[in-house]
Amino acid sequence: MSSAHAYKLPPALRRSAPSRGPASPAGERATADGDASPTGADPATPLWDLIEDPAHLDELADLAEQMRAALGRERQAIAALDPDLMRLVDDDKRRVIAGLESLTERAGRTRVAHPASPERRHQVATLVRLVRAEGQANGLLIAAAREAIAAALGEVEDGYDKHAKRTAQTRPLRIIATI
After folding, report:
1. Is the pTM here over 0.85, yes or no?
2. What span, in angstroms and rounded, lies between the C-alpha atoms of 175 and 39?
3. Residues with Cβ < 8 Å from 57, sequence gap 6 or more?
4. Residue 11's pLDDT is what?
């Protein structure tokens, strides 16, 4: 995926190292990539642990289900090599991420009399972990598809350049034509 399409997750959803220093003057702690957590909590704390309101936890579960559905459609698009479907899936994933950003901003400010149960938190945590695993699997599938297309086009990796980047050459066209 090109850097133009890279997703930037809200700080509370990123896996990050613990803060490298004291809290910032605004009371926020910096994540490993320099962003401040809008909730003021340790950036390594998962969002489902920050949410007390059961309605917000249900919203997180709904967003996770939407992302799972988008990742499933993405796998279908990769298998079919369908760029139009990939663009639609990309839009869906961006909408889910916008929803997660909104939820992250609201979650740290909401206090309720009856917080969500530990069982529900565990269910949502499991769902979010499934989404992460499916996202990683889709990344591997994309890499395998790219390698298969490169092989079909005759691109052969032949080594590394001085910047440790792989270099490739295309086989002669007469060899490609026989494939």
Report:
1. no
2. 58
3. 48, 51, 116, 120, 121, 124
4. 54
